[in-house]
Amino acid sequence: MGEMAQKIAKNDTIELLNILNMAFAEEWLAYYQYWLGAQLAVGPMRPSVADEFIEHANEELKHAQMLCNRIIQLGGTPVLNPDEWSHAASCKYDEPKDPYVMKLLEQNLTAERCAVARYQKICEMTFGKDYETFRISEKILKEELEHEQEIGDFIDDIQHTLQHKG
Question: Is the whole model's pTM more than 0.85, yes or no?
Fold first, then answer.
């Protein structure tokens, strides 16, 4: 536990740890949603979409690691049981019952938009009060915005291709 990390954070530590644990659980769910989607994807641009999903999955895993480290520094405990991730998360896991790439992309777009809102809230909560948590959440927010853009671009590209086919 980081004694100084706790002293210099000028937030309600319990509230901050709750939201960081929520984000931590969401990152694990996002990791799995991307990873599984990459395995199951079928349809147009499948190899490119699957590669993008694997890249995003790996970044979500890194986000979980960063959050875990910060939760521990602040004297908290990350969600210990994977069974609890869906209970702790507000951004929900959307199982890929339909493996068509457009459906998977739409599910992940919804998840990314939820993640963007989560990290925007953490940034607002910690700005000028907890520089380290702000720095971490700002970095993750930047990457989540990139994910949203990349997924949106895939959706646009596939829609354009399908409209102009034939």
Answer: yes
